[in-house]
Design goal:
single chain, alpha/beta, eight-stranded parallel beta barrel, binds NADP nicotinamide-adenine-dinucleotide phosphate, binds iron/sulfur cluster
């Protein structure tokens, strides 16, 4: 029995009463935009998506946000629930979830000034920094009609078979815009005093409760920390929580941080459970169940928060993309088999922001459940997989799970390949969970592991199928002096085989250049310890001040190293980084004093440093260490040898195409290849 199996998760797995319902455990699958609503076969895909998570035993599933009216739509394609007929088409989704023993609640979300539509509305006509549309100020009649729209939307959800609704009052959407002075400059009965600013959410909750009766579950998602200037202080949040309880809510879910906040709230740089104190502040004010959320991704952290009394329930969203069976595996003593969300945002939020349906880097099935099969193959094959990085591990474990006889060769004495390097970047040690997961899957499904064995063509004669996932090697640019002792590859630095000096030049400002620069200037505590994280980003660790801020989130945070990052392109450094994490990386580097220079021509390296030409002027950048983050080349020597011998091979991951290789493509290719064997 592993350590994780021995642990008790008794609080998390215990039932809890909420309103008229006895919930089977204390875990909610939090709301996520899925964009499945606008896909072909939308209802079938949503049934598959939600039913799989209900089979995984979350007590309540909250859907992505439905706008209660046209002005509240997130974007022109966003889902609405203002038409009873349309709402009824969702009934099969509700029935599929309920058949598996979970409750399902529709989230009612009015996007307010975040709505990416002409004619968006807000309490005051102040444009959001993350939206180009300026909102129209709502009239008194607009406000009263919108309250009625929420009530009708809840009624539509109830008629469609939902067990309840979650009223979205956090993250800076319309309701939250009413509650704080940051966005509410009104001087009528909906603005000014806290009493007035709170009137809109309170009236919505009251109207929904009156319209839908006492059996209908009403969850209100309160902003437990706005993380914007002019946000609410803790006592105002507690006051609102009490009013929401009195107005008839059954559960208070918590949200941390507005979308425009300059403090990271859910990305991998945020320590696990960093917002727990904010939930505890709300819990102290009310007697209905309070839910903690944000960067809770393992049963251990969930149990710790619950057992310590800081919250009554836990909401996890992305962890249910990574592993729909999070709760079931925990209940069955298989917590060590959970595929953990690593908070990368690469296939969930970044897909949504680029108009693609939600996915997951560590679980290619997420949002695409109907494209994969789990049933064993009818024609088992003998499969060799060469290279135990992300692509190879994914191929081998999936193929073995489907019943193939798989041998995995890895030249190193441990699995992981590039993941072993990636996990050195601040917060990316979450990749250790991916390594733990795949290590367990390979063992569980009987993959024969050949660690420390560089496979040659002679080792591969006895297989029906040979998969080459030999990965990449760092690209060494053709530059005079590149063999100077000051030069190191990113692999040497991130693996710890070479230490960097106090002044460093990072050549290449792609994803790895940014990771290396962040690695060089960040103290490990900033991503593992909530107090250190709060200090870096100007957050009040007690979450009591206005907006829970204690300083400027972008204030400089000096580093002991001087780092300059260079690229030849003239475009903004890091322009290709993920939408939802790139801004954090860029701000973190700026805060830590990293200088980013573009439009650079490299000339040579010698004892004086890196010689460059910028704006036609020759310059020398002195450096103790020059780190090459200049891309990668595919490692194909074995593949070419096998092909020359007439052996049929399938190349995947970096071996197939080094450009823009990341774990997302590697795992997806691996799993899909195994499915097709
Ligand atoms: P990358 O993003 O393509 O960046 C490579 C960098 O090297 C570029 O800045 C390029 O910029 C420079 N370069 C390329 N060839 C060069 C040469 N011959 N001489 C000098 N400079 C050269 O690749 P990466 O940083 O190696 O990352 C690999 C993959 O992992 C990418 O898909 C990346 O998106 C992903 N990744 C993402 C993240 C993240 O989003 N946080 C983190 C790590 C990795 P110039 O040509 O302008 O100089
Ligand atoms: Fe978590 Fe990354 Fe998957 Fe999103 S893509 S659910 S952040 S592992």
């Amino acid at each position: 029995m592993t350590d994780m199996q021995k642990k008790s998760f008794g609080t998390m797995l215990s039932p809890i009463r909420a309103g008229q319902h006895m919930l089977r455990n204390r875990v909610i699958m939090g709301s996520m935009h899925t964009r499945l609503e606008t896909e072909p076969d939308s209802i079938a895909r949503q049934i598959a998506f939600y039913a799989e998570r209900a089979r995984g035993e979350a007590a309540i599933l909250v859907t992505g946000g439905f706008a209660p009216n046209a002005e509240g739509m997130f974007d022109p394609e966003g889902p609405r629930i203002d038409d009873p007929e349309d709402a009824r088409s969702l009934r099969p989704i509700c029935e599929a979830v309920q058949a598996e023993g979970s409750l399902i609640c529709a989230q009612l979300l009015h996007a307010g000034r975040y709505a990416k539509i002409e004619g968006c509305v807000a309490p005051s006509p102040i444009r959001a920094p993350i939206n180009r549309f300026v909102p129209r100020e709502m009239t008194d009649a607009d406000i009263r009609r919108t309250i009625e729209d929420f009530a009708k939307a809840a009624e539509n959800a109830q008629a469609a078979g939902f067990d309840g609704v979650e009223i979205m009052g956090s993250e800076g959407y319309l309701i939250n815009e009413f509650t704080v002075t940051h966005t509410n400059k009104r001087d009528d009965e909906w603005g000014g005093s806290a009493e007035n600013r709170h009137r809109f959410p309170v009236e919505i909750v009251r109207a929904v409760r009156e319209r839908c009766g006492s059996d209908f579950l009403v969850i209100y998602r309160i902003s437990a920390a706005d993380l914007v200037e002019g946000g609410a202080p803790a006592e105002e949040i507690a006051d609102l929580a009490r009013k929401i309880e009195a107005a008839g809510a059954d559960i208070l879910n918590t949200g941390i941080g507005w979308h425009e906040a300059r403090v990271p709230t859910i990305a991998y740089q945020v320590p696990r459970g960093a917002g727990r104190q904010a939930a505890a502040n709300v819990k102290a004010a009310v007697s209905i169940p309070v839910v903690a959320s944000n960067r809770i991704n393992t049963p251990e952290i969930a149990e710790d928060i619950l057992a310590s009394g800081e919250a009554d329930m836990i909401s996890m969203a992305r962890p249910f993309l990574a592993d729909p069976h999070f709760v079931k595996k925990t209940r069955e003593g298989r917590a060590d088999e959970i595929n953990t969300c690593i908070a990368c945002n690469q296939a969930c939020l970044d897909f949504i922001f680029s108009d693609r349906p939600v996915g997951c880097l560590v679980n290619p099935r997420a949002g695409r459940e109907t494209e994969f099969r789990d049933s064993p193959t009818e024609s088992p094959k003998k499969v060799a997989v060469v290279g135990g990085g992300a692509a190879g591990m994914a191929t081998a474990s999936e193929a073995a799970m489907l019943g193939h006889d798989v041998t995995l060769f890895e030249a190193q004495d441990k699995l992981g390949g590039q993941l072993n390097l990636a996990q050195a970047a601040p917060g990316k040690d979450e990749f250790n969970e991916t390594l733990r997961y795949y290590g367990g899957q390979l063992q569980k499904h009987g993959v024969k592991l050949r660690l420390g064995q560089r496979a040659g063509s002679d080792d591969l004669t006895d297989f029906d199928h040979v998969v080459i996932s030999t990965g990449v090697t760092p690209r060494i640019p053709d530059l005079p002096g590149v063999d100077h002792p000051s030069v190191a590859t990113y692999a040497e630095i991130l693996s710890g085989n070479r230490a960097a000096g106090d002044t460093v030049v990072v050549m290449g400002a792609g994803g790895i250049g940014h990771d290396v620069a962040e690695f060089l200037v960040t103290e490990p505590a900033e991503t593992h310890n909530t107090d250190a994280f709060c200090e870096t980003w100007g957050v009040d660790p007690q979450f009591t001040t206005s907006g829970a801020l204690a300083g400027d989130p972008l204030a400089p945070k000096p580093s002991r190293r001087k780092v300059v990052m260079l690229q030849r392109k003239t475009s903004k450094a890091g322009a290709g980084l993920g939408v939802s994490t790139g801004w954090i990386l860029r701000n973190a580097l700026r805060k830590h004093g990293v200088e980013a220079l573009g439009g650079v021509v490299y000339d040579r390296i010698d004892d004086a440093g890196l010689h460059i030409v910028m704006d036609g002027e020759p310059k020398i950048i002195a450096a103790d260490t020059i780190v090459l983050c200049t891309g990668q080349e595919p490692e194909r020597a074995l593949a070419e040898e096998l092909i020359a011998q007439g052996v049929t091979v399938t190349m995947i991951g970096g071996a197939k195409e080094a450009a823009e290789l990341d774990a997302l493509r590697a795992i997806d290719e691996g799993v899909r290849l195994a499915q097709s064997l």
